[in-house]
Amino acid sequence: MIIPPQDLLKLGYNEEQLDCSGIKLTLDEVYLPSSRGVIDLDNKTIPNYIRVREDENGFFFLKKGSYIVRYREYVKIPEDAIALAIPRSSLLRSGTTLFTAVWDPGYEGRGYGLLVVYNGHGIMIRRGAQIAQLVFIKMSEKSMKLYRGMYYKEK
């Protein structure tokens, strides 16, 4: 069952954050990976990043390629729910998409996503523009395993 926006108000989100089916995720920062990542059987090494700067009007001009994006919103996923970030259709219509992982029960923090620009002409996105909608899905009961990994309470 999808948790409707009016129920998200009860979880501490405000009216301004709500969208039709969840909460708005807006663009805060953009990064380019500058080294190799490693995913091993029992550990991982996340690449170093170079921050992409916006222009004087607050726009990021992103050429074709992949970018790590950070959302502006600090979110809290209930212990009996998961969340999925779905890209805005305007992003897709601009030849760009957003890939994200499952937002686990108990996670809280400011998340990251992988923005991929397929459009050969690139895209301009202003800091603060909505790029995704975070949709909350209620589980049948509270999870026995809450997220407490390395990204817990990231700011």
Molecular structure report:
This protein has 155 residues and is mostly beta strands. The protein contains two helices and 13 strands, in the order αββββββββαβββββ. Strands 1, 4, 6, 8, 9, 11 and 13 form a seven-stranded antiparallel beta sheet that branches. Strands 2-3 form a two-stranded antiparallel sheet. A hairpin with a 4-residue loop joins strand 2 (38-39) and strand 3. The longest helix is centred in the first third of the chain and has 5 residues, at 5-9. The model has no long low-confidence stretch (mean pLDDT 95).
Order of helices and strands: HEEEEEEEEHEEEEE
- Helix residue percentage: under 10%
Uncertain runs = none
Rg from alpha-carbon coordinates: 16 Å
Shape: globular
Strand content: 35-45%
Tell me, rounded to a whole number, the average pLDDT.
95
What keywords describe this structure?
155 residues, mainly beta, 13 strands
In a nutshell, what does this entry contain?
By secondary structure, this protein is mainly beta.
Write the layout of secondary structure elements.
Layout: H1 5-9, E1 23-33, E2 38-39, E3 44-45, E4 49-52, E5 59-62, E6 65-71, E7 75-76, E8 81-87, H2 89-93, E9 96-99, E10 108-109, E11 112-117, E12 123-126, E13 130-138
Antiparallel strand pairs: 1-4, 1-6, 1-13, 2-3, 5-12, 6-11, 7-10, 8-13, 9-11
